[in-house]
Amino acid sequence: TANTSSNLDNSATIEAMEDNPEGGCHIYRNGYYKTAISVVEGILEVNIIQMMGIQMTESQGENSLVDFVVTCQGSLPTDVCTVVSDPTCQVSKSVVCDPITVTDECLLTIRRAFEEPGTYCINITLGDDTSQALASALISVNGGEST
């Protein structure tokens, strides 16, 4: 049981009882503890506001590049993870995580490569030390162009 004491130092009195199954007796412990709780806002919302295919020349390689413009609300993220899955969002094809530095406003561009044309489910997760938020989208990649 826990009883709050009348002290002004925000301490609480704790009385704990433990069973000792071997000896059939009880152990009583009494004492005080003190702690501080910090409430943080966290990352509240993530939105993919634009997806743009990057035009590539043949000499730049075969992978199609897509830029995702992402915004968020709440605290500023420190890392971003992108999961590329099949169109049903059930089978992961790749996972890429990167640390990021966002100052002042949460608006960032994430560039990802796609090895072959097709339809993909994209999950973009922004995170910090205390929270994570996710946005998802379906994208069709057609040899350097995306829709």
Automatic annotation (TrEMBL):
<dbReference type="InterPro" id="IPR046846">
    <property type="entry name" value="PKAT_KLD"/>
</dbReference>
<protein>
    <submittedName>
        <fullName>QNR71 protein</fullName>
    </submittedName>
</protein>
<dbReference type="GO" id="GO:0005178">
    <property type="term" value="F:integrin binding"/>
</dbReference>
<dbReference type="GO" id="GO:0005886">
    <property type="term" value="C:plasma membrane"/>
</dbReference>
<feature type="domain" description="PKAT KLD">
    <location>
        <begin position="71"/>
        <end position="121"/>
    </location>
</feature>
<dbReference type="InterPro" id="IPR045219">
    <property type="entry name" value="PKAT"/>
</dbReference>
<dbReference type="Pfam" id="PF20433">
    <property type="entry name" value="PKAT_KLD"/>
</dbReference>
<dbReference type="GO" id="GO:0007155">
    <property type="term" value="P:cell adhesion"/>
</dbReference>
